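Summarise what follows for lecture notes:
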Amino acid sequence: GPCTECSCSSGKEIDKDTSNTKKKENGDRSFIPKIFFGTRTHKQISQITRELKRTAYSSVPMTILSSRDYTCIHPVVSSSGSNRNEMCVELLEGKHGKSCLYYHGVHKLSEHHALQSAHRMYQAWDIEDLVSLGKKLRACAYFAARELMVGADIVFCPYNYLLDPQIRESMEINLKGQIVILDEAHNIEDCARESVSYGVTENQLRAAREELDFMVNNNIRQKDHEPLRAVCYSLT
């Protein structure tokens, strides 16, 4: 039915055909859309969750999608430089005979939030709160935040999580039929450009050119490699 906590409850009745609660998915189950709230920076997410906590909707199930730079608590990976993603993947795959014990404790975090919600103690939280709790429970905040997305009504994330198709796919974000809110949307153009742009150095181009030279000179898929080599030559 209509919400009772705000002025829209006194508005016109929603047409039955357009009511979100009337949509069906997977047989008889009602489909309730999630709200994906995109912001420009992580700092803005902190501000929004702080404001959410002050409203009547602070107990609504939520999550915050963020990179490993903000959420990883593994002592070795988190203290490394720019290769946190690669190191995390290596630990998950057990490449060097080691695995991430924090990843195996993900359920501790998600169950903790479920327990709080069941006892109506749930409150809007910030990514720092989740990381702090993750350290206490020795559980990965990065994967816990993704797991919490399943039952969340509101999902906060940076713009590129919604705009970049590769990130959407890797984070298993499906926006079909969902509600998308973009805060300060005048920044979207720049973010969209970044999502389809890629930067390379001259040294990288020269290295690629040398490898492609080798491929072409040794008759390895010449038709594929010659056009790529031509691009590298033209750019350098």
In short: Residues 201 and 236 are 10 Å apart (CA to CA). Residues 7-23 have pLDDT under 50 and may be disordered. The beta strands are 35-39, 62-64, 154-158, 179-182. The longest strand covers residues 35-39.
